Automatic annotation (TrEMBL):
UniProt keyword list: Oxidoreductase
Keyword Manganese set for record: no
GO molecular function terms attached to this record: FMN binding; iron ion binding; riboflavin reductase (NADPH) activity
Protein name in UniProt: Rubredoxin-like domain-containing protein
Domain spans labelled Rubredoxin-like: 178-216
SUPFAM superfamilies for this protein: FMN-binding split barrel, Rubredoxin-like
Pfam families: Flavin_Reduct, RUBY_RBDX
């Protein structure tokens, strides 16, 4: 089956924030949809391996920050590629964090916020579709919301394994396969000879220097 047709589905970019007890947790998702309009219900597809999934199962609540195109790249690097099991991703060290109704949110460059109460969790094999009712909304910046297409085409970002839209990349040739480097911080893959880049080259996703790339 040719799965490339799935690349034509469109999405946005969101940060989910929840609590593990009193500790903030959360991750990046691209799979938020509005399900109903009356007393609105939304749905999110969440990988069962994500720490955020465990925390939402326990707390029954989460926030959604709708990320704008100008969002600090650290937000995506921290929330989208690191796991909150062993670290506090909302500590405010790597990007500005806020709190809404007791839940962690991305404070800057978010177009708006939603606070949600879980009403159902539907099994979807590797993932779980979380249905939740909106209990509060809050406006944010007027900057354009970041689409998944913008993330891929402008920021040149990738989706990690836990994202429902992840697809294994097949190198075009043996030669190309020999010249791939991974950013140790966010997982961005550089194809080609990175040594030929200028000394001030930085990772397009998390802005780490060339020295943080490892040959794959
Ligand atoms: C662009 C992008 C989109 C993502 N979309 C989803 C998604 O829709 N659902 C999901 O479960 N994980 C998604 N992820 C992956 C999680 O953000 C990632 O696995 C994160 O490290 C989980 O952190 P946690 O273990 O602290 O919950 C996405 C990541 C990125 C970078």
């Amino acid at each position: 089956m040719d799965l490339s047709v799935l690349h034509k589905l469109t999405y946005g970019m969101y940060a989910v924030g929840t609590l593990d007890g009193i500790r903030p947790a959360g991750c990046i998702v691209n799979t938020v949809i509005q399900v109903t309009s009356d007393n609105p219900v939304i749905a999110v597809s969440m990988n069962k391996n994500n720490f955020t999934y465990e925390a939402i199962k326990k707390s029954g609540r989460f926030s959604i920050s709708i990320l704008s195109e100008a969002v600090e790249r650290n937000v995506i690097a921290e929330l989208g590629f690191a796991c909150g099991r062993k670290m506090d991703k909302f500590c405010g060290k790597n990007f500005a964090c806020g709190v809404l109704d007791g839940l962690p949110i991305v404070k800057e460059h978010a177009c708006g916020y939603m606070v949600c109460d879980v009403i159902a969790m539907h099994d979807a094999e590797t993932h779980c579709v979380i249905m939740a009712r909106l209990t509060k909304t809050l406006g944010g910046t007027d900057e354009p919301p970041m689409t998944y297409e913008y993330y891929h085409n402008v920021i040149k970002g990738k989706a990690p394994k836990n994202a429902p839209t992840y697809q294994v990349e097949v190198p075009k040739s043996e030669k190309q396969a020999q010249l791939r480097y991974i950013c140790e911080v966010c997982g961005y893959i550089y194809e080609g000879d990175i040594t030929k880049e200028a000394d001030d080259y930085v990772c397009p996703v998390c802005k780490q220097p060339k020295s943080r790339f490892k040959r794959m």
